[in-house]
Amino acid sequence: ERIPVICIDGPTASGKGTLAAELASRLGYHLLDSGALYRLVGLAAEREGLSTTEADLREPAHAERLGRLAAGLDVRFTPGKTWLEGEDVTEALRAEPAGMAASRVSAVPQVRAALVDLQLQMRHLPGLVADGRDMGTVIFPGAPLKIYLTASAEQRAQRRHKQLISKGIPAILDDLLADLKARDARDMNRAHAPLKPAEDAVLLDNSELDIEQSVQFVLNRWHGQQ
Ligand code: C5P
Questions:
Q1: CB-CB contact of 125 with 35 (8 Å)
Q2: pTM beyond 0.80, yes or no
Q3: What is the ipTM score, two decimals?
Q4: Which of 59, 182, 73 is CA-nearest to residue 51?
Q5: CA-to-CA distance for 69 and 57, rounded, in angstroms?
Q6: Which residues line the pocket of ligand 1, CB cutoff 6 A?
Q7: Which of 26, 175, 48, 187 is nearest to 106 (CA)?
Q8: Residue 30 C-alpha to ligand 1 middle, in angstroms?
Q9: Which of 57, 133, 156 should be mutated for ligand 1, with most atoms under 8 A from CB?
Q10: Nearest alpha carbon, ligand 1 atom 9
Q11: Which of 34, 53, 57, 164 could pair covalently with 171 via S-S, beta carbons 3.0-4.6 A apart?
């Protein structure tokens, strides 16, 4: 508990990943991208031929199977890269299908439970910046600083659109907006660890802020309470 953790929770495409990575780099802290873990489970399921449809996930035996898959993930992180069973999956992880699969498998309690220890183990000196949906509510409830990052759905869809187009990936704004709203709804309404601000979280709406302004906001809070 003496190792500091800064939690950055919030909906999809709110800029959590960018903010968390920037904070970790400036503070010299470790970084936990918890979404990557759920994306890895989605990807691993697909590769094993295990269904991730919502109907199948409601089957207790199938939920157990996915929980075992999550518990036995053969994953390795190297700077800037993620490896699943020895294969570089960095690109595949960021793609939309992995995100949608992640959003479905992350509603399975057995999957969430299987990933708890892995996340707790990321807490090393000098500190950790943890990015996700339930960092402040479930995984690190005692964290000294919790940020709940939001932006309007339209803003978030536009940002994601720009990001994809700049990478040469074709994208349709309306489709992105619809996917994003579907994912928000699923993340906020699930029974286990739903997306919501922790009671002691600081709300930060970055609709009108650039990255530097968001970074400064968090650093000011952090230094102010140290
Ligand atoms: O943040 P990212 O888009 O990579 O997360 C992918 C999905 O993983 C989210 O839509 C969410 O359903 C799930 N997730 C979660 N808990 C976390 C992080 C991500 O349920 N701590």
A1: no
A2: yes
A3: 0.97
A4: 59
A5: 13
A6: 12, 34-35, 38-39, 99, 102-103, 106, 132-134, 183, 187
A7: 187
A8: 19
A9: 133
A10: 103
A11: 164
